[in-house]
Amino acid sequence: MYILGIESSCDDTSVALLDCSDDAFVVLAEKTAGQVDVHKKYGGVVPELAGRMHAENILPVVEEVMNEWREKMGKKNALPDVIAATTGPGLITGLLVGAEVAKNLSYLWNVPMIAMNHIEGHIHSVFINNHFPISSLQFPALCLIVSGGHTEIVLMRDFGEYDLLGKTRDDAAGEAFDKVGKLLGFEYPGGPKISKFAAEGNTTAIPFPRPMMSSDDYDFSFAGLKTAALYELRDRPLENEQEKKDFCASFEQAIVDVLVTKTKRAAKEFSVKTIILGGGVSANPKLRAGLQTMTQEISNVRLLIPSTNYSMDNGAMIAAAAYMRGKKKEFTAWQDIVVNPNWEVYDK
Ligand code: KG4
Ligand code: ZN
């Protein structure tokens, strides 16, 4: 099944064409137009600017992907079997652009369309260009989704069947990384910069709190950790590069400890066979290593982690997530497509 995936829910206009089967999801063409340079001046994504940039970028990006794929296929007029576009959750300014373009293409090409959930996309990023085939996925699977907008643990009972176990009550993990990055003087997004500094720091230098790590639910809270970081910087300003690295390592470890501890407890309670990591923060090496070690401690659980190329928002994951829905012909007529900025993956 050839699937065109379109993602525009935040600050990346990303389009990909995948050849999907039960055995493999192969990316045949892809292109992303990022906007970080525009938003970093403001320390975060400005929705109005994001919408305008998506509108400028999306048609050239789609055209480039289609041309590259058609050339590979040796067919000038080749069309995909399915068009998948993110219709939520995310910024309405961006969602509208991607969804409208997808609707137009669906109408003009007479190709069926699937409205995709962004979080379901992140969950399926583990199958892209990966040796693990989707047909081997064993349920129940536990999904830890950690991004700039989301931090949640979702139980996946089957394809398309999700139950929420817990989510953040305030800031998302990526948001905490970005806000503390800003306090440290890093450009947006601060997450990757903190993890780079953390690699050479001492994780036990500062005893940051581990909010809600032992609470008997699966919710999270990172706003307090951000405040603790603020007070720490106010009371003991960093004096040199090594202290900055130690600060980053200690802060990062606090987030990783909370995420890994809660994932482990949920994995045991629900006797899951698979753990899936997804979302931008899945690029964090400490989190990846922490989950790997934890998974080895509980038997018969397979950990699936996206390749770092597909950790951040991308069109390929949207195409990947559409495959099982495409097989079941879960299409939506373009006239009925509605974007929903607050669409939760566990809402039908
Ligand atoms: O999934 P994503 O691309 O966009 C959203 O849907 O939010 O995630 C972006 C988030 C940002 O908060 C960014 O700082 C974080 O992922 N991030 C990281 C790392 N790489 C990206 N956080 C910690 N460590 C990283 N290496
Ligand atoms: Zn995302």
Automatic annotation (TrEMBL):
Pfam families membership: TsaD
Compartmental location: Cytoplasm
GO terms, molecular function: iron ion binding; tRNA N(6)-L-threonylcarbamoyladenine synthase activity
Gene3D superfamilies linked to this entry: 3.30.420.40
Binding-site residues for Fe cation, renumbered to this chain: 118, 122, 313
Note on cofactor: Binds 1 Fe(2+) ion per subunit.
Binding locations of substrate: 145-149, 178, 191, 284
UniProt main location, coarse: cytoplasm
Keywords (A to Z) from UniProt: Acyltransferase, Cytoplasm, Iron, Metal-binding, Transferase, tRNA processing
Enzyme class, first EC level, given as a word: transferase
Enzyme Commission number(s) from the entry: 2.3.1.234
NCBIfam families: gcp_kae1 (TIGR00329), T6A_TsaD_YgjD (TIGR03723)
The protein, known as: tRNA N6-adenosine threonylcarbamoyltransferase
Annotated source species: Candidatus Magasanikbacteria bacterium CG_4_10_14_0_2_um_filter_41_10
